[in-house]
Amino acid sequence: ATRHLARHYVQQQDYASAIEYYRQALAADGLSDVANREMLRELAQVHLLDENYREAAATLERALRIKLVPAAPDFLLLARARYKLQDYVGVVEALDGIAANGLTLDIIQMRQALALYYRAGAYEQCEDILKQLLKLEPKEAGHWHQLAAVYLKQNKRRQALDLLVLAREKDIAFNEQELMLLVDLQAVNGNPYGAAQLLEQAMAGGQLPANVANQRKAFELWFQARERQRATRALEKAAYSSGDTELYLYLAQLQMEDQQWQAVEQTVLKSCENRLQDRYVSRAKLYLGVGLLKQGREAAARQAFINATLV
Predict the structure, then answer these.
(1) pLDDT tens across 59-112, in order?
(2) How far apart, in whole angstroms, are the C-alpha atoms of residue 251 and residue 237?
(3) Burial of 242 (0-12, 13-18, 19+ CB in 10 A)
(4) Residue 275, SS3?
(5) Whole-prediction pTM
(6) What tens digit of pLDDT does each residue of 256-275 get?
(7) What is the distance, to the nearest Å, from the Cα of residue 116 to the centroid of all Cα atoms in its chain?
(8) How far are the Cα atoms of 22, 26, 29, 77 from residue 35, in angstroms, in the given order?
């Protein structure tokens, strides 16, 4: 009778009365262990609704001490209560009890456990759950990208790269941030060529914006890969689309190293279409002078060198 009254007060959101009647019902000791455990679960949920997380955890621990086969939701609820108490070690201990008791989770419960493990910083356990989820839902893009993030949390960059490459091969969806992560992972794992190639393909296909930052990144990656022609083309796109003086001068420097003297002159003159800041004047005039001298235009080159000394 008191249990029914407790449920009535829960529906009325009178949690204090509900808790009192649950306690009376449990103290009466007139029900079986199975019924008492169910009542303790209900009481714990009321404590959670009432935001009394310490009592919720204590109630669930009491339910788990009953000599019955435990149920996975009890451990999940206990982990949730401990998380609210910021007891992250307790969260992991509660969730680890699921596997320790040979219990299995359905997909929804796996996702709940994953979220709690992740918030508690238990990345190895997250890795195990995500691998199970990938077997059950291999087309779910979120599982692939979450697993890559978990690998990175453990500094497993090679595994994260291999996973994302496999995801691309399986046509798993990537957003801009996830594509840039794959580009960066290619680079830090010693493959700037693959990183630059992926970046340019993504820009050409509209998956990534062909903005100055990405074009400059493509230049840097091609340069690391020792692909000078491709690096120069990428830098040329970045400079001409942005009008950035510094990029123009980097481009002129590359062209000078490749002895493209007329291109050096054109690039420097392009950079000078807008008034140069003082810190760029000497460098621009120096490059212009070299370009002119190598074309045999000595008088113009001499004037450029003199101008280079004025600032």
Answers:
(1) 999 999 988 888 999 999 999 999 999 999 999 999 999 999 999 999 999 999
(2) 10
(3) middle
(4) coil
(5) 0.78
(6) 988 999 999 998 988 888 78
(7) 17
(8) 12, 10, 10, 18
